[in-house]
Amino acid sequence: MSKSKRSLFRRINAWLHLWLGLASGIVVFVVCLCACLWVFRYEVWYFTETYQRIEPQNQPFLSPSVLLKKAQAFAQKAEGKSVTLTGITYGGPNKSAFVNYKPTEDKFYALYLNPYTGEIIHRKTGPSTAETFFIFARSGHRFFFLPPKIGSPLVGSACIIFVILMITGLIWWYPKKWTKSTREKSFAIKWNANWKRVNLDLHNVLGFYSLLVCMALTISGIVYSFSWFDKGYHWLLTGNAQDTHHHTRSHEHPLSDTTITAAAYSKPEDIIWQKIRRELPGDLGRLSLSFPEEARDPFEVTINPEDGTIYKTVTRFFDRNTLNELPSDESRRYEELTTGEQIYRLNFDIHVGQILGLPTKILAFFVSLIGASLPVTGFIVWWYRGKKSDKRPKVSVQQTSGSVL
């Protein structure tokens, strides 16, 4: 089809797709490539950091006070001075517990313990090699390896453009007439064709098949770049225009009653632990207890019933002296939320592909990889759009049904 025979709408659509794609291509490539590397971070950490794993035993975990006492003694000996313990985290039956502490005001270390015996397994003073790699990958994914104040809006803007590219690409991909020939070009890769045609098919066909998942991964990611988008997304789902937890959670914590200066209980961590375990018997994905640092700070307990996803995570607060539970929106269980609030809380798990466990992680990995390939295959299509190969006919976008991305 010649340019003159294409409608004005399709010409504008093609122009937008081309120039927006060229403008955002390098950022989209880096963001998507780093995303597919980041998908399996927990699995890599678990298998490379052997101190995270223990042999399950048919007995209950030791109470927090016992593990904290052992951790304090070990840390004091290692540091040569008394240290401040900031919290303790329990995992599942086959995972070690760990106690966080501050050797100095600006450093955080962790001691990994066997929760059944209290044995110190590992003293962690910095990120492991695997963590360092994934921190690097996340920097590319979230900030394009730039300072966050510059990189975050750059990545967010590229993602908004990428959404527009997916829409314009679908319009370009859609044939004017459905025939046997256009169906073959739209839904199948012709592997025995010349390399330009294969490249074009990779762009069109893979772009089409990954469209819906890629759209979900991209839109859910824009939430973390722009507060206005986050608030608008929250309002659209819930009808509530209040500030969302992504940006204001730290300012919404309830506070302890500072008029009470004497603790009513000894070993408060054990009392809170026992209360939680009575309410939630059986295996838990993860339970973290953070200790108050200032006079008004409460005890903070983060409970994740299912390790691997976070949408069911709740955070509960207890007065540091009376241990009375303090009301907070963060303590609402997933089942207590409205449908819109539930969808909003699912956002992170959708974005990183962990919403249904390993199957959706694999899906997110391949869709992110396809997303990274689209700027490359699209650039090749544009670069060679008017160039002829030796003894081969010219391959152009007009010879196909279109382009998805």
What percent strand? Answer: 5-15%
Structural class of the helix and strand makeup?
Answer: alpha+beta
**Helix and strand run:** HHHEEEEHHHHHHHHEEEEHHH
* Biggest sheet statistics: 8 strands, antiparallel
Describe this structure in words.
The chain has 405 residues and is of the alpha+beta class. It folds into 3 domains: 3-42 and 132-234 and 356-399, no CATH class; 58-125, Nuclear Transport Factor 2, Chain: A, CATH 3.10.450; 253-327, no CATH class. It is built from 14 helices and 8 strands. The protein has helices spanning 8-38, 41-48, 64-79, 129-143, 148-173, 180-187, 195-209, 211-222, 227-238, 245-248, 268-279, 339-345, 347-351, 358-383, and strands at 84-90, 97-102, 109-113, 120-124, 286-290, 299-304, 314-318, 325-326. It has an 8-stranded antiparallel beta sheet, with helices on one face. Strand 2 and strand 3 (109-113) form a beta hairpin. Helix 1 (8-38) packs across helix 5 (148-173), helix 1 (8-38) crosses helix 14 (358-383) and helix 5 packs antiparallel against helix 8. It is elongated, with a radius of gyration of 26 Å. The model is unreliable at 245-251 and 393-405 (pLDDT under 50). The chain crosses the membrane at residues 12-40, 154-174, 206-229, 362-384. Pfam families: PepSY_TM. Keywords: Membrane, Transmembrane, Transmembrane helix. InterPro entries: PepSY-ass_TM (IPR005625).
